[in-house]
Specification:
The protein has 305 residues and is of the alpha/beta class. The protein is built from ten helices and 14 strands. The chain has two domains: 131 residues, 3-Layer(aba) Sandwich (Rossmann fold), CATH 3.40.50.2300; 163 residues, 2-Layer Sandwich (Alpha-Beta Plaits), CATH 3.30.70.
């Protein structure tokens, strides 16, 4: 697991990080509550080990802030308390800690508690995957995609960097299902995600919005760059074969619409509203023109071309 050690004592941090690494974990540290909040916001951790007092702030306060700031991320919080404390257990848990450890730490006990924490973390990951990903393809589901998209729109508005979107739809998908069966149709849908993942960057956001329709959000990418990627996707998918259960294979094509965020568009708090929906609506309109224009083609949003 990746563990954050929050302690204002340099020696205590160093010793605990060494012990944790000796148990096979990855570690990072924070010397203050502000640093801990920043690291948890910008990085991904499974567990935070927080000292009972960090600078002028009590550890229970640090836990409360970390819990409040974690958002959709799950962070297993373990508060390290002096052995002399005997009457604050409820307060510790009430303020966000998942459990507490007695100081000085017993390494054997710490190892056992971290094993128990790893099971909780893994369960939380599985629940998050079920809640945020499409079960057929593993791509983000519509709700999670829209949440991520809202965050990227807000970031693009702050930084002034370009942001583009691709909407993609399998041509004549009903015919594939009717002719070859739903299992073949499902495999065609899965193959779209597999091909997309080979061509998009790690920062790009891929989601299945429903049925045979997909969206890709491209941070720091102008519409021309998104159109180039869309054409590469179109060509790659047209060359993709879906194996049939009885032998042989079937191919399919896709139609793609591309749009870009316009200056001045604002993201609203509720996912699916404001600049996000406007951006996707323009890509969808371009997709509709690609369908009407004969399919198997890429069309740009002319207003932002």
């Amino acid at each position: 697991m990746r563990i954050l050690v929050v302690d204002d004592s340099r020696m205590a941090r160093m010793v605990l990080c060494q012990q944790l690494e000796g148990l096979g974990h990855q570690t990072a540290f924070a010397a203050s509550d502000e640093e801990a909040l920043t690291r948890c916001r910008d990085e991904s951790f499974d567990v935070a080990l927080v000292d009972f007092r960090v600078g002028a702030m009590e550890g229970v306060e640090v836990c409360w802030h970390l819990r409040a700031a974690q958002g959709a991320k799950h962070l297993y919080l373990m508060l390290m308390i002096p052995g002399s404390i005997t009457n604050q257990f409820f307060e510790v848990v009430e303020n966000g800690a998942d459990e507490f450890l007695r100081k000085p730490l017993d390494l054997v006990w710490l190892r056992a508690r971290l094993l128990a924490a790893s099971r909780v973390v893994e369960m939380q990951r599985q629940l998050e995957r079920l809640a945020t990903t499409d079960s057929l393809t593993g791509a983000l589901n519509r709700g999670r995609f829209m949440t991520r998209a809202a965050g990227e729109v807000a970031r693009a508005q702050r930084s002034g960097q370009p942001l583009s979107a691709i909407m993609l739809d399998i041509d004549h998908f009903k015919k594939i299902n009717d002719t070859h069966g739903h299992a073949t149709g499902d495999e065609a849908i899965r193959s779209v995600v597999r091909v997309c993942r080979t061509l998009v960057r790690g920062a790009d956001i891929l989601g299945r919005l429903g049925g045979e329709e997909f969206a890709i959000l491209l941070p720091d990418t102008p519409q021309q760059g998104a159109a180039l990627l869309a054409e590469r996707l179109r060509v790659a998918l047209a060359a993709t074969e879906v194996r049939l259960p009885g032998g042989g294979a079937v191919t399919f094509t896709v139609s793609i619409g591309v749009s870009a965020l316009r200056p001045g568009e604002k993201a609203r708090e509720k996912a699916g509203e404001g600049a996000v929906s406007a951006l996707l609506a323009r890509a969808d309109e371009a997709l509709y023109r690609a369908k009407n224009g004969g399919r198997n083609r890429v069309v740009w949003d002319e207003a932002t071309a």
